[in-house]
């Protein structure tokens, strides 16, 4: 388990005895620190096509088209034959988050979902496996006879993007493939709101089972909202789920407005804190907000410049560490904000996955706290039942840095961790 942020000591926890056993790629609940994620497994396919190709298959240009599996497969096969596909990316908001967590933490995670039982070379399932970290334990996936989901992005010569969505068997996950022993010992469980819209599909019951097991064993639940339209269509169900099960909620500013009615991210975060314990709001060029609770004895004032918005002096206690509200005797709301890292990249190559990267950083900090609490239970770091290892301000820095790493590359998943040695400009950033 790597620790989040930058540490002055190379070996933060000295090792006194060599590890004699061979490393295990499968999660061992009694020994490992890991997080568990449930996702609709989907592969993103990027292809260059002509307007005539869209007309041939009666695909609405510039729109998101939900297409029957047989037709989608025919489209995909022709794209392969024409050499029109430029990239395959393993997708899914939780799949991205889990992968990025394992890259950042250099440690294990568990993915729950479906996978094609028979995988052909070059198939979407093959590309999904190839683009997922080897530290993601996929031994608990449910095998299906069909294909995983496919999202085909077709780019015409004028630059317009048209989407073809083929769900495949991604919603076929059943509650039988929700392993209680794995969930019970997890540092956190992470889900998205997408399965909530899969009415009548097995994955909705599987997600419900996951949430119930996590609540039963006191495992923190982290949820990502998905899209603005999803929130608008299923707002009441999402609100009920958050109230009952969720400890950390992540969203962008549009999803936050759809959920709360507040366009201002800070006001939206304040409203969401009435439902859950910690809130991440990514607000594009405005940066990101991380808000939550701490207990009165653990309150720490910031040395950063004080900020005011719709809440006066809102970042006053951002050097505090998060605590779940139910564990606070005298809960105090804490708000932190950070501007885009280094002002944001000069050229954004990809916005898909930036929020997933920020969420992976938060999961890493929660898991680091879990690891440290079990390794050194008498440490002063655990005088209060903290949810995370670092302060709100430090987690903001970390999440911001990971988001930047996603924005400057073409893919939504990290291929490696953050650089060990930063340049002088970044050095100054971390010292602030």
TrEMBL record:
<feature type="binding site">
    <location>
        <position position="355"/>
    </location>
    <ligand>
        <name>ATP</name>
    </ligand>
</feature>
<keyword id="KW-0067">ATP-binding</keyword>
<keyword id="KW-0547">Nucleotide-binding</keyword>
<dbReference type="GO" id="GO:0006166">
    <property type="term" value="P:purine ribonucleoside salvage"/>
</dbReference>
<feature type="domain" description="Carbohydrate kinase PfkB">
    <location>
        <begin position="133"/>
        <end position="292"/>
    </location>
</feature>
<dbReference type="InterPro" id="IPR052700">
    <property type="entry name" value="Carb_kinase_PfkB-like"/>
</dbReference>
<comment type="pathway">
    <text>Purine metabolism; GMP biosynthesis via salvage pathway.</text>
</comment>
<dbReference type="GO" id="GO:0008906">
    <property type="term" value="F:inosine kinase activity"/>
</dbReference>
<dbReference type="InterPro" id="IPR046405">
    <property type="entry name" value="IngK"/>
</dbReference>
<feature type="binding site">
    <location>
        <position position="400"/>
    </location>
    <ligand>
        <name>ATP</name>
    </ligand>
</feature>
<comment type="function">
    <text>Catalyzes the phosphorylation of guanosine and inosine to GMP and IMP, respectively.</text>
</comment>
<protein>
    <recommendedName>
        <fullName>Guanosine-inosine kinase</fullName>
        <ecNumber>2.7.1.73</ecNumber>
    </recommendedName>
</protein>
<dbReference type="InterPro" id="IPR011611">
    <property type="entry name" value="PfkB_dom"/>
</dbReference>
<comment type="similarity">
    <text>Belongs to the carbohydrate kinase PfkB family.</text>
</comment>
<feature type="binding site">
    <location>
        <position position="197"/>
    </location>
    <ligand>
        <name>GMP</name>
    </ligand>
</feature>
<dbReference type="GO" id="GO:0032263">
    <property type="term" value="P:GMP salvage"/>
</dbReference>
<dbReference type="GO" id="GO:0005524">
    <property type="term" value="F:ATP binding"/>
</dbReference>
<keyword id="KW-0418">Kinase</keyword>
<feature type="binding site">
    <location>
        <begin position="39"/>
        <end position="44"/>
    </location>
    <ligand>
        <name>GMP</name>
    </ligand>
</feature>
<dbReference type="InterPro" id="IPR029056">
    <property type="entry name" value="Ribokinase-like"/>
</dbReference>
<keyword id="KW-0660">Purine salvage</keyword>
<comment type="pathway">
    <text>Purine metabolism; IMP biosynthesis via salvage pathway; IMP from inosine: step 1/1.</text>
</comment>
<feature type="binding site">
    <location>
        <begin position="282"/>
        <end position="287"/>
    </location>
    <ligand>
        <name>ATP</name>
    </ligand>
</feature>
<keyword id="KW-0808">Transferase</keyword>
<dbReference type="GO" id="GO:0106366">
    <property type="term" value="F:guanosine kinase activity"/>
</dbReference>
<dbReference type="GO" id="GO:0032264">
    <property type="term" value="P:IMP salvage"/>
</dbReference>
<dbReference type="Pfam" id="PF00294">
    <property type="entry name" value="PfkB"/>
</dbReference>
<keyword id="KW-0460">Magnesium</keyword>
<feature type="binding site">
    <location>
        <begin position="92"/>
        <end position="96"/>
    </location>
    <ligand>
        <name>GMP</name>
    </ligand>
</feature>
């Amino acid at each position: 388990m790597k620790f989040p942020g930058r540490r002055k000591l190379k070996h933060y926890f000295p090792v006194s005895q060599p590890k004699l056993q061979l490393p295990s790629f499968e999660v061992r609940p009694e020994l490992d620190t890991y997080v568990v994620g449930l996702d609709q497994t989907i592969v993103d396919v990027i292809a260059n096509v002509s307007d005539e190709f869209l007309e041939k298959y009666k695909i609405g240009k510039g729109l998101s088209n939900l297409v029957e599996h047989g037709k989608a497969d025919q489209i995909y096969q022709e794209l392969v034959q024409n050499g029109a596909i430029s990239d395959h990316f393993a997708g899914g908001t939780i799949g991205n988050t889990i992968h990025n967590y394992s890259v950042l933490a250099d440690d294990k995670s568990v993915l729950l979902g479906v996978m094609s039982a028979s995988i052909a070379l070059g198939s979407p399932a093959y590309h999904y496996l190839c683009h997922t970290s080897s530290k993601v334990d996929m031994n608990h996936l449910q095998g299906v006879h069909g294909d995983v989901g496919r999202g085909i992005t077709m780019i015409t010569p004028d630059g317009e993007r048209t989407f073809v969505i083929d769900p495949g068997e991604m919603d076929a996950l059943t509650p039988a493939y929700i392993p209680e022993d794995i969930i019970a010992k997890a540092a956190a469980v992470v889900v998205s709101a997408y399965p909530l819209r899969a009415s009548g599909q097995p994955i909705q019951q599987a997600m419900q089972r996951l949430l119930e097991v996590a609540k039963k064993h006191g495992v923190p639940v982290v949820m990502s909202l998905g899209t603005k339209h999803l929130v608008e269509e299923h707002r009441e169900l999402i609100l009920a789920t958050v109230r009952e099960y969720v400890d950390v909620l992540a969203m962008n500013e549009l999803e936050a407005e759809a959920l709360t009615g507040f366009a201002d991210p800070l006001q939206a975060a304040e409203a969401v804190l009435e439902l859950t314990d910690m809130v991440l709001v990514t607000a594009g060029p405005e940066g990101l907000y991380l808000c939550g609770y701490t207990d009165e004895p653990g309150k720490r004032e910031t040395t950063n410049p004080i900020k005011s918005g719709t809440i006066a002096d809102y970042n006053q206690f951002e050097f505090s560490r998060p605590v779940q509200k139910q564990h606070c005797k005298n809960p105090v709301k804490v708000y932190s904000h950070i501007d885009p890292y280094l002002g944001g990249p000069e050229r954004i190559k990809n916005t898909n996955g930036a929020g997933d990267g920020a969420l992976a950083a938060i999961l890493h900090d929660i898991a680091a706290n879990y690891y440290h609490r079990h390794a050194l239970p008498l440490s002063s770091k655990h005088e209060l039942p903290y949810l995370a290892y670092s302060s709100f301000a430090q987690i903001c820095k970390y999440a911001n840095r990971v988001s930047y790493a996603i924005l400057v590359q073409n893919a939504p998943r990290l291929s490696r961790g953050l650089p060990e040695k930063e340049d002088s400009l970044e050095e100054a950033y971390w010292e602030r």
